[in-house]
Specification:
This protein folds into 2 domains: about 15-60; about 75-175, no CATH class. The longest helix is centred in the first third of the chain and has 17 residues, at about 15-30. With about 180 residues, it is an alpha/beta fold. The chain has 3 helices and 12 strands. Helix 1 packs antiparallel against helix 2. Strands 1, 3, 5, 7, 8, 10 and 11 form a 7-stranded parallel beta sheet that branches. A 5-stranded parallel beta sheet has the order 2-4-6-12-9, with no helix packed on it.
């Protein structure tokens, strides 16, 4: 059943639907497509929404690009040092065990979203990102260290989402 005002169904939405809409808003503010004020206003509307028709106008102008379906580029350094410069368009998996993996992501274009899983065990992962990149670190460390740069000044470029775990290891992100 649809309302007269909208083609969206008038069915009630779940908390998971609201949380998914909040993720879209979070990515939009990280990409620079929304200001923090707009984000707060829209987030309030998302959590007040009861139907899909209520969510439609809040998200209509924020469609995200289709997720990459490519296999991740893998970089592995075991008792060695590896230098790599992936093309900056797809997911990347980096692993350093008693070694060092040096990854150059300066080719990442503004607006691109790169998922990078960076893990080390008694090793080191060094990432070089574009000067305007937004780096979001969602990883962790156990007896290790993770250092990421502060937010860029000016217009944001590529969004790099870091995951992974450093165990007696280190992750360092530098702006190029």
């Amino acid at each position: 059943m649809a309302t007269e005002d909208s083609a969206l169904p008038a069915m009630r939405i779940s908390d998971e639907d609201r949380d998914n809409a909040a993720v879209v808003l979070n990515r939009a503010v990280a990409d620079g497509r929304l200001t923090w004020t707009e984000h707060a206003e829209r987030l309030e509307l998302v959590y007040a929404a009861r139907t899909a028709a209520d969510l439609g106008p809040v998200l209509a102008d924020l469609h995200l690009p289709a997720p990459a379906t490519r296999a991740p580029k893998r970089v592995s350094a075991v008792f060695s040092k590896i230098l790599s410069a992936p093309d900056g368009t797809g997911p990347v998996r980096v692993n350093a065990v008693f070694g060092a993996a040096v990854v150059d992501l300066r080719s990442a274009r503004p607006g691109a979203e790169i998922e990078l899983a960076a893990s080390s065990m008694f090793g080191k992962v060094e990432l070089t990102v574009p000067a305007d990149a937004v780096v979001i670190d969602e990883g962790g460390a156990v007896f290790g260290k993770r250092r990421t740069p502060s937010a860029p000044t000016g217009a944001p470029g590529a969004v790099i989402r870091l995951t992974g775990r450093n165990v007696f290891g280190k992750l360092v992100v530098r702006r190029g």
